[in-house]
């Protein structure tokens, strides 16, 4: 799949998202639930700001000493009999994985959810080689059965599909005969996939956090598929982004505590699994052979730059779940496997501005993302930095751009204005406005607008920018709708 | 066990050091004193009774049944829960704690009249045979090595007789929890593992933090309990051990 999904131009992706009312309803509902879950979990835990500060300190220290911790990790894995491969590029990572698959003469690979394997396009590579690759996360499995529909959310990949669509996909492709009830669909997937787990030659997992001190990798899941992937096949390949590491188990505790709450509002997910090398001596299940592939694929270019904090991301999607732009255009509109605010920051860094220069503008700069981030990545500031760079690089100081930046500076320099700005999220309001007044606000505004009409924020920023640039014609972002 | 291999490391780590604008660091890095330690304030100074209350409360939230019993009555309780699940094929860890509580002999004696049979994970048997038996079992039973009050979690450390599949493949899972294994949260378990590593002990190849049955909300965000792992879970707390 690679980092980019779909080949439609940004305009058309956005248009498609805006017109898909089921998807938008589903997305808004999911955002509400996940956001509420996160807020409740943070409140119940208490000291949330201290936790966030601690999370940030840990990420910062680890990234500042990344070479040290990766060295320690690799030595510990090797001491336990594991094989470590450092891959500078996606191609190198894939080549190594292909080699393992060929050595094992593997015909079937079963996977648990892993964003980085999607980023490097591992599935396509293996399938081209004639190896069957099966996704076992329920959401990913649904997408795979539906002719490789791309994911639209990093935690809930099939968010854009409703249950009757899913039932139809299983009916058509897998001979499913029962109802659209999620329980029955899930039961069917369990039975289908259990056979695959038992017969797969190789299991591929991602890695939420590696632990340097012991050479462990951790997997944070609810469905149990990652446990099956790492217990049943004789060979396991874990693929990790190079920044996904903590010094010791003590920091693992903190990061996992932040991740589970921020992602799904749970104290811990049903399974948090720490795996160290292949199965131990005398043990029966677990892999005989363990491979760890550590992937750079453009990440090191972010180190030491003003965007370094983007590498602090722990992939919880809290920023996605509060983003008013995401709720309107949906995940696919970003054209990247990493959608939402973090996707708009990360995708241009990993894939270049060329095909992604609209993404930093897919934001109202309301700063809800920054406020939600459990490790305090200043996401909206990084988006502004992207815009500045894009403008600088292209020397394209259109009037529109100047106005947009000025508007933001003015708002940002006035705390009360800024606060209103971040609560109001101008872009998000437009579908709810009648003659310039907000009559039915989404999310946090709902209660308020019930009792009063709120003057609509000036129609600025994204939608406006988007319309204007559309009229202006295909100066950039031309794509093929094929 | 042989030592593994490491490929392409030096160029990779040198590039990172370059980007960070300094020489490569190969040793001497110490974790700083973090400015915050909020994890140690959770359930601080709680008695074991208070921790137990927290634990039970959390189990309701994670769709997990809880039973309390004494060491003496544990075998009967295990048997009762198995019967409630209508279990016919039972698989347990090969773990001396089962013997010391007299669980196996009780089950063998008591369950045969219900047509149920008990298998043990057996490191002398082949991998395929063990996995086949675990996959056919309808109830899997293990002990908890460490138990977390905050999240309703049992921590399982893999070992020869302590196969990963026992708590994973059967539809019903029973965890036996000696009350003495109860700690406030993941912090204390992580500290214990960290301490062992610092002492030069090796960490279990698989450390599982299990909090209730498997679940998913991937279809329209509606919660389905029971996906790839167990569908139903009961924790049996042994209050006097």
Automatic annotation (TrEMBL), chain A:
A Pfam family per the record: LUD_dom
A single GO BP: lactate metabolic process
Keywords: 4Fe-4S, Electron transport, Iron, Iron-sulfur, Metal-binding, Repeat, Transport
Keyword Iron tagged: yes
A GO molecular-function descriptor: metal ion binding
Residues reported in the UniProt entry to bind [4Fe-4S] cluster 1: 313, 316, 319, 373
UniProt entry tagged with the keyword Signal: no
HAMAP family: LutB
Functional summary from the UniProt entry: Is involved in L-lactate degradation and allows cells to grow with lactate as the sole carbon source. Has probably a role as an electron transporter during oxidation of L-lactate.
UniProt-listed NCBIfam families: LutB/LldF family L-lactate oxidation iron-sulfur protein (TIGR00273)
PANTHER family from the UniProt entry: LACTATE UTILIZATION PROTEIN B (PTHR47153)
Protein known as: Lactate utilization protein B
Protein species of origin: Melghirimyces thermohalophilus
Encoding gene per record: lutB
From TrEMBL, chain B:
Spans traversing the lipid bilayer: none
Residues of the LUD domain: 52-238
Highest taxon, organism lineage: Bacteria
Signal peptide limits: none
Pfam families reported for this sequence: LUD_dom (PF02589)
Biological processes annotated in GO: lactate metabolic process
Function: Is involved in L-lactate degradation and allows cells to grow with lactate as the sole carbon source.
Family named by the database record: Belongs to the LutC/YkgG family.
Identification of the protein by name: Lactate utilization protein C
Source species: Melghirimyces thermohalophilus
Lineage of producing organism: Bacteria, Bacillati, Bacillota, Bacilli, Bacillales
Gene coding for it: lutC
């Amino acid at each position: 799949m690679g980092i980019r999904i779909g080949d439609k131009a940004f305009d058309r992706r956005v248009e498609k998202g805006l017109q898909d009312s089921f998807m938008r309803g589903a997305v808004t509902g999911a955002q509400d639930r996940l956001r509420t879950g996160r807020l409740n979990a943070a409140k119940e835990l208490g000291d949330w700001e201290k936790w966030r500060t601690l999370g940030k300190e840990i990420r910062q220290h680890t990234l500042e000493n990344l070479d040290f911790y990766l060295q320690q990790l690799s030595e510990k894995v090797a001491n336990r009999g594991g094989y470590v491969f450092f891959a500078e590029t996606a191609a190198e990572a894939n080549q190594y994985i292909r080699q393992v698959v060929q050595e094992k003469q593997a015909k079937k690979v079963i996977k648990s959810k892993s964003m980085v394997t999607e980023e490097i396009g591992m599935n396509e590579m293996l399938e081209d080689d004639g190896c069957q690759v099966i996704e076992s996360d329920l959401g990913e499995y649904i997408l795979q059965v539906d002719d490789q529909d791309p994911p639209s959310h990093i935690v809930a990949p099939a968010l854009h599909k409703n249950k009757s669509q899913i039932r139809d996909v299983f009916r058509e492709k897998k001979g499913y005969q029962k109802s659209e009830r999620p329980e029955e669909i899930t039961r069917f997937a369990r039975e289908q996939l259990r056979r695959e787990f038992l017969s797969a030659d190789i299991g591929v997992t991602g890695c939420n956090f590696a632990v340097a001190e012991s050479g462990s990798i951790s997997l944070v899941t609810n469905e149990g598929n990652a446990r099956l992937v790492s217990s049943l096949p004789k060979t396991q390949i874990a693929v990790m982004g190079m920044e996904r590491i903590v010094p010791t188990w003590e920091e693992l505790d903190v990061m996992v505590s932040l991740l589970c709450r921020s992602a799904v509002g749970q104290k811990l997910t049903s399974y948090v699994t720490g795996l160290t090398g292949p199965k131990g001596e005398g043990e029966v299940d677990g892999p005989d052979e363990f491979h760890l592939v550590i992937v750079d694929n453009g990440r090191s270019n972010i180190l030491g730059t003003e965007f370094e904090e983007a590498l602090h991301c722990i992939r919880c999607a809290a920023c996605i779940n509060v983003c008013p732009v995401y709720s309107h255009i949906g995940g696919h509109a970003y054209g990247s496997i990493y959608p939402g605010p973090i996707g708009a920051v990360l995708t241009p860094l990993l894939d270049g501005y060329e095909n992604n220069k609209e993404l930093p503008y897919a934001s109202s700069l309301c700063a809800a993302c920054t406020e939600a981030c459990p490790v305090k990545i200043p996401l909206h500031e990084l988006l502004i930095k992207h815009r500045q760079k894009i403008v600088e690089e292209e020397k394209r100081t259109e009037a529109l751009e100047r106005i947009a930046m000025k508007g933001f500076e003015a708002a940002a320099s006035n705390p009360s204005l800024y606060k209103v700005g971040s609560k109001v999220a101008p872009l998000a309001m437009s579908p709810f406005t009648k003659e310039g007044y907000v009559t039915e606000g989404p999310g946090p505004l709902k209660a308020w607008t019930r009792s009063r009409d709120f003057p609509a924020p000036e129609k600025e920023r994204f939608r406006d920018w988007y319309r204007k640039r559309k009229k202006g014609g295909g100066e950039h972002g031309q794509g093929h709708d094929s | 066990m042989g030592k593994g291999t490491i490929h392409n490391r030096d160029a990779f780590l040198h590039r990172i050091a370059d980007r960070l604008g300094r020489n490569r660091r190969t040793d001497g890095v110490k974790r700083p004193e973090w400015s915050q330690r909020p994890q140690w304030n959770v359930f601080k100074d709680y008695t074991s009774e208070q921790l137990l209350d927290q634990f039970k409360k959390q189990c309701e939230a994670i769709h997990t049944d809880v039973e309390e019993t004494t060491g003496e009555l544990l075998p009967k309780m295990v048997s009762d829960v198995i019967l409630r699940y209508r279990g016919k094929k039972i698989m347990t860890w090969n773990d001396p704690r089962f013997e010391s509580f007299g669980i196996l002999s009780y089950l063998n004696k008591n369950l045969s009249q219900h047509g149920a049979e008990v298998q043990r994970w057996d490191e002398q048997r082949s991998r395929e045979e063990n996995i086949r038996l675990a996959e056919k079992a309808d109830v899997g039973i293990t002990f908890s090595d460490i138990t977390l009050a905050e999240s309703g979690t049992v921590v399982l450390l893999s070992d020869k007789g302590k196969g990963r599949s026992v708590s994973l493949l059967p539809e019903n899972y029973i965890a036996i929890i000696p009350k003495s294994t109860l700690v406030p949260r993941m912090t204390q378990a992580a500290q214990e593992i960290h301490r062992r590593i610092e002492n030069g002990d090796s960490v279990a190849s698989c450390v599982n933090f299990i909090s209730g049955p498997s679940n998913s909300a991937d279809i329209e965000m509606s919660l389905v309990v029971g996906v790839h792992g167990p569908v139903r879970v009961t924790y049996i707390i042994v209050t006097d051990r």
